Amino acid sequence: MCCLKYKRKEAIVEMIFLKAFVVGGLICALGQFILDFFKLTPAHITCGFVVTGAALDVFGLYDRLIEFAGAGAQLPIMSFGHSVIHGAMEKSEQLGFIGIGMGMFDLTAVGITAAILFAFIIALVFKPKG
């Protein structure tokens, strides 16, 4: 009986990885499809995905996607838009209109700070063009 419980847990873990892989792969494939067929720049696609993640969070759909796919939905850039809007909505409920501006950076401050810090370090190590 003990081995049967272990096998079930192992199957559940494997299914979590499979869901994350499929959903993350589909999001990335969608970005590649848009890049190839609509001739947009990577910046356009990045902005579009951030706005899409924010819009899905406004309607409560991105949280459901995260519950289903886990890291497959949390790692792509769409999750950044979700985090910005999610923090803004939480703080606006507590503090009103001023909370929107304060809440935007609650969940994303570490990521933004890391991006700025690493960009600075890379610029010191390598010679930037231009």
Automatic annotation (TrEMBL):
Regions that span the bilayer: 12-35, 41-61, 68-89, 95-126
Pfam families reported for this sequence: SpoVAC_SpoVAEB (PF03862)
Key word Transcription present: no
Keyword Membrane: yes
Keywords recorded for this protein, A-Z: Membrane, Transmembrane, Transmembrane helix
Coiled-coil residue spans: none
PANTHER family named among the record's database cross-references: STAGE V SPORULATION PROTEIN AC-RELATED (PTHR38450), STAGE V SPORULATION PROTEIN AEB (PTHR38450:SF2)
Protein name: Stage V sporulation protein AEB
Organism: Turicibacter faecis
Gene for this chain: spoVAEB
